[in-house]
């Protein structure tokens, strides 16, 4: 059996098809990214209720992009610059190139600031205008279509669609993810993971993983949150800082967490996002508008004809949308896209990470294709602020688009087919045609 | 920002109060399709092969032969059949007169002895006095319902299969090793019999093969063969090595023989994430689910339509008067069908979407007495790990674990996630690949 299995590798190599020469040219790219490293969303005064030691100070207010986050995003922009210049989409003349880019960010500081720093890495010699709505007055229909009134989410169906993924009840998540909750408890309460018996909760601390006191439920959501998950949301608040601490170069989990531990606690974060944003009903309501805009933008670029419901103009070469993990993961859920970057759990929307859609055209046939990938800095590239180059790129996962991608190594998907599957997946009642 | 207890209560109360008032269930069960996995079995490799992977020899089960049902497995399957009997009598689909009822029952099993034996044990629980089980086994060889590719009904493009899986993991299968490092570390500690917390980890015992060492045998995504749609290289060995743990526990082997005394039910559940991963990649990946599960999905949908209309329908199972359709196959089949419809479930003690031994996806065809409308109600039903281990008798008062399942694009927001038959047919039509389906009854 051993010998048989060892023969797999050469077999796999020889059975892979000879890849045809890639004769495609990049015509447009859409980068749909998450903000980079930020301070925790919750204030330390809240977080410290869950831990025996105080959470670290990030030096900026809650939810604000950190100076390191800004630097990291500029590094990422520098990588995109090199790549897009190599691809011939950018010329290296930033002022000239800036006429063909469209930057749009959700109307909060961390996403706008991320977009600005991405732009300063991408086009360092130009001033790029990052379009965004007014933070105090407007809700962006691309990123929060429900609260913006473009999409309607039925609360009962939202709850049913999530409950119906875990039939025996949300509390069962406590046992299904018990290794992760045990690790989180150990880190928050400051004892070695795996210690038995686990020590009691100190008197002045709230055990975020105690689902008897604070059950995991599936309840109606609030603004920005499609559903409430009760105790799971609390745990999520308490672990949210860990990835950011690691990415920001801070001691992580009071030095109890290495990258692997951060990745393991992030599974809980992933679970929450999966339930709230990838559940098919919720992805359809919440991500149809951004999906529609992305698809129509690709079509607009391919045809050269101005369309409604698009981003930028027919001549825009680079479209950048910066929002949150919930948006990027939601869009992935709608299209059933999966990825894995080394060191992260599957489908993790990492700080600065982006779904990237390339519109390419075959020079021989004229055919347009869509090539999707997920690009993000690894945990260590974030922590070490590693300069990124074509030789030392961020982690890149080519992504297969179900029912569309072909079998080549970049999983190319003909534009016509992409439009067809998108129209099956998008809920037309949850999308607008506003540019 | 801390949620005070009162607010939490209010939240729960709000959540209860905003759920729509559930209308009285005026539906009557007209037909049920029980699509189950085989019962507890012996490992799929002989101990002499498995023992290469472990410091101590794997335990013997009370049955001899590889991948055969154990006596306890058969008993558990009969217990489950007996539960369905009670439930279906309560629902008035069965009368309790087994011989008469057996005329309205259709059992079909994939051909290996394990699966036909499971079907027989299930029959013995459901229809205990109906005489010898009547199990439809398509012979010789591959049943197009369960192995449509091998049967020639569906065509699997190997290159696309490899791409579809690779394109879910960034084309970097070895990255799975770090993503699943905690599970692999636990697996190694069980197999080589040391404490899960040992640092540094002890070396591989002389003469043994470390299934978690992917430098010698990398995780790959390569073309598969007749039994697997893709080949996952080193991950396959991990699956072989952990596969016995669930069976050891469920078969009631002494504690000292469950992972050599080192695995609790929780630990088994954790190692099982690796098994789930392999099933997810090989059977739930959309392209693979579509090729491998369309024929089964088509037959299920057509059987429900046949049951509702009373008209014989091509590509349906049994006849319009059939009340119970029991299909017994493997976890690969259940994972595939669930993947095709994007169905998820979670039962106590298991990981999400686990196909437990004997566990089944259950599709109920029900008719509203007031409107005449037909609905499909879906659930996943399985014994818990402890019900299996203790061979717990199952009754309506002490049932197996039951997860109502929401069918995306179809289910409504009532507590049982009912889905109109017409919508189910439409969703099925969108999900299946018509070129991977036959119309054979």
Question: Notable features of this structure?
Answer:
heterodimer; A: 435 residues; Rossmann fold; 2 domains; two-stranded antiparallel sheet; 10 strands; disordered N terminus; B: 441 residues; alpha/beta; 8-stranded mixed sheet; 14% strand
SSE topology:
The complex is a heterodimer of chains A (435) and B (441).
Chain A: H1 2-6, H2 8-15, E1 24-34, H3 44-47, H4 67-86, H5 94-97, E2 101-105, H6 109-122, E3 130-131, H7 155-163, H8 173-176, H9 178-189, E4 216-222, E5 225-230, H10 231-247, H11 259-278, H12 280-303, E6 318-323, H13 325-335, E7 354-362, E8 368-376, H14 379-383, E9 395-399, E10 413-414, H15 415-425
Helix pairs in contact in A: 4-6, 9-11, 10-11, 11-13, 12-13, 12-15
Chain B: H1 5-18, E1 27-37, H2 47-50, H3 71-90, H4 98-101, E2 105-109, H5 113-126, E3 135-136, H6 158-166, H7 175-179, H8 181-191, E4 219-225, E5 228-233, H9 234-250, H10 265-284, H11 286-309, E6 324-329, H12 331-341, E7 360-368, E8 374-382, H13 385-389, E9 401-404, E10 419-420, H14 421-431
Q: Your description of this structure?
A:
- The complex is a heterodimer of chains A (435) and B (441).
- Chain A has 435 residues and is of the alpha/beta class.
- Chain A folds into two domains: 18-150 and 280-430, Phosphoglycerate mutase-like (Rossmann fold), CATH 3.40.50.1240; 155-277, Phosphoglycerate mutase-like (Rossmann fold).
- Chain A has 15 helices and ten strands.
- Chain A has helices at residues 2-6, 8-15, 44-47, 67-86, 94-97, 109-122, 155-163, 173-176, 178-189, 231-247, 259-278, 280-303, 325-335, 379-383, 415-425, and strands at residues 24-34, 101-105, 130-131, 216-222, 225-230, 318-323, 354-362, 368-376, 395-399, 413-414.
- In chain A, the strands form two sheets. In chain A, strands 1, 2, 3, 6, 7, 8, 9 and 10 form an eight-stranded mixed sheet that branches. In chain A, strands 4-5 form a two-stranded antiparallel ribbon.
- In chain A, strand 4 (216-222) and strand 5 form a beta hairpin.
- In chain A, helix 4 packs across helix 6, helix 11 (259-278) packs across helix 13 (325-335) and helix 12 packs across helix 13.
- The longest helix of chain A is centred in the last third of the chain and has 24 residues, at 280-303.
- Chain B is an alpha/beta fold.
- Chain B has two domains: 27-153 and 286-436, Phosphoglycerate mutase-like (Rossmann fold); 158-283, Rossmann fold (3-Layer(aba) Sandwich).
- Chain B has 14 helices and ten strands.
- In chain B, strands 1, 2, 3, 6, 7, 8, 9 and 10 form an eight-stranded mixed sheet that branches.
- In chain B, strand 2, helix 5 (113-126) and strand 3 (135-136) form a beta-alpha-beta unit.
- In chain B, helix 3 packs across helix 5 (113-126) and helix 9 (234-250) packs across helix 10.
- The longest helix of chain B has 24 residues, at 286-309.
- Chain B starts with a helix and ends in a 10-residue tail after the last helix.
- The chains are: A alpha/beta (435), B alpha/beta (441).
- The interface between A and B is large, with 79 and 81 residues.
């Amino acid at each position: 059996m051993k010998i048989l299995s060892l023969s797999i590798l050469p077999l796999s190599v020889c059975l892979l098809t000879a890849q045809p020469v890639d004769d495609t040219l990049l015509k447009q790219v859409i980068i749909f990214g998450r903000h980079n490293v930020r301070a925790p969303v919750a204030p330390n005064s809240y977080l410290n209720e869950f831990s025996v030691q105080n959470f670290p100070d990030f030096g900026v207010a809650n939810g604000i992009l950190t100076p390191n986050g800004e630097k990291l995003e500029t590094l990422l922009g520098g990588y995109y610059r090199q790549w897009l210049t190599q691809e011939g989409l950018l010329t290296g003349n930033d002022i000239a190139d800036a006429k063909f880019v469209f930057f749009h960010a959700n109307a909060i500081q961390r996403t706008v600031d991320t977009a600005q720093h991405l732009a300063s890495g991408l086009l360092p010699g130009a001033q790029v205008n990052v379009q965004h709505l007014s933070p105090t007055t407007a809700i962006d229909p691309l990123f929060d279509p429900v609260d913006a009134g473009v999409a309607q989410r039925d609360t009962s169906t939202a709850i049913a669609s999530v409950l119906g993924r875990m039939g025996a009840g949300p509390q069962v998540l406590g046992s299904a993810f018990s290794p992760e909750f045990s690790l989180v408890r150990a880190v928050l309460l400051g004892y070695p993971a795996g210690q038995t018996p686990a020590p009691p909760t100190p008197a002045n601390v709230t055990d975020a993983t105690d689902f008897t006191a604070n059950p995991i439920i599936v309840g109606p959501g609030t603004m920005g949150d499609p559903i409430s998950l009760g105790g799971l949301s609390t745990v999520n608040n308490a672990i949210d800082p860990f990835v950011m601490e690691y990415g920001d170069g801070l001691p992580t989990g009071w030095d109890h967490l290495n990258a692997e531990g951060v990745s393991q606690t992030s599974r809980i974060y992933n679970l929450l996002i999966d339930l709230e944003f990838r559940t098919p009903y919720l992805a359809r309501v919440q991500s149809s508008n951004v999906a529609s805009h992305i698809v129509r933008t690709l079509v607009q670029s391919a045809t050269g004809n101005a369309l409604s419901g698009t981003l930028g103009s027919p001549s825009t070469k680079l479209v950048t949308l910066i929002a949150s993990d919930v948006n990027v993961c939601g869009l992935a859920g709608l299209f059933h896209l999966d990825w894995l970057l080394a060191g992260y759990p599957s489908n993790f929307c990492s700080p600065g990470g982006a779904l990237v859609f390339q519109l390419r055209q075959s020079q021989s046939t004229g055919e347009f294709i869509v090539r999707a990938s997920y690009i993000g800095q690894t945990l260590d590239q974030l922590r070490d602020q590693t300069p990124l180059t074509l030789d030392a790129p961020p982690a890149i996962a080519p992504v297969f688009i179900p029912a569309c991608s072909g079998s080549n190594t970049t999983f190319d998907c003909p534009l016509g087919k992409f439009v067809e599957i998108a129209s099956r997946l998008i809920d037309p009642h949850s999308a607008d045609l506003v540019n | 920002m801390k949620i005070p207890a009162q607010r939490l209560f209010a939240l729960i109360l709000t959540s209860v109060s905003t759920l729509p008032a559930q209308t009285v269930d005026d539906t009557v069960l007209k037909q049920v399709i029980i699509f189950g996995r085989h019962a507890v079995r012996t490992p799929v490799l002989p101990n002499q092969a498995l023992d290469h992977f472990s410091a101590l020899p794997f335990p013997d089960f009370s049955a001899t032969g590889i991948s055969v049902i154990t006596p306890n497995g058969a008993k558990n399957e009969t217990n489950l059949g007996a539960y369905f009997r009670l439930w279906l009598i309560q629902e008035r689909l069965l009368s309790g007169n087994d011989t008469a009822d057996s005329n309205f029952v259709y059992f079909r099993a994939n051909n290996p002895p394990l699966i036909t034996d499971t079907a027989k044990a299930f029959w013995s629980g459901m229809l205990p006095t109906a005489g010898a089980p009547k199990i439809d086994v398509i012979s010789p060889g591959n049943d197009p319902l369960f192995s449509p590719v091998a049967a020639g009904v569906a065509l699997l493009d190997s290159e696309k299969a490899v791409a579809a899986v690779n394109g879910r993991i960034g084309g970097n299968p070895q990255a799975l090793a770090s993503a699943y490092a905690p599970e692999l570390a636990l697996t190694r500690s069980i197999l080589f019999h040391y404490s899960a917390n040992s640092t540094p980890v002890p070396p591989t015992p002389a003469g043994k093969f470390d299934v978690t060492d992917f430098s010698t045998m990398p995780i790959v995504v390569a073309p598969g063969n007749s039994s697997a749609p893709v080949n996952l290289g080193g991950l396959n060995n991990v699956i072989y090595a952990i596969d016995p743990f669930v069976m050891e526990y469920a078969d009631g082997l002494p504690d000292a023989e469950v992972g050599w005394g080192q695995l609790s039910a929780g630990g088994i559940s954790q190692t099982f994430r690796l098994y789930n991963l392999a099933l997810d990649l090989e059977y739930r990946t959309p392209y693979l689910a579509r090729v491998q599960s369309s024929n089964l999905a088509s037959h299920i949908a057509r059987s429900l339509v046949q049951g509702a209309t009373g008209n014989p329908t091509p590509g349906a199972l049994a006849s319009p008067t059939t009340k119970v359709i029991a299909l017994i196959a493997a976890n690969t089949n259940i994972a595939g069908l669930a993947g095709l419809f994007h169905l998820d479930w979670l039962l106590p003690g298991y990981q999400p979407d686990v196909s437990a031994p004997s566990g089944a996806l259950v599709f109920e065809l029900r008719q509203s007495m007031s409107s005449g409308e037909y609905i499909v109600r879906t659930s996943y039903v399985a014994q818990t790990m402890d019900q299996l281990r203790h061979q717990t008798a199952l009754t309506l008062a002490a049932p197996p674990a039951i997860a109502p399942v929401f069918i995306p694009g179809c289910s409504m927001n009532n507590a049982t996630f009912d889905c109109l038959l017409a919508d189910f047919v439409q969703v099925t039509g969108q999900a299946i690949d018509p070129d991977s389906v036959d119309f054979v009854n």
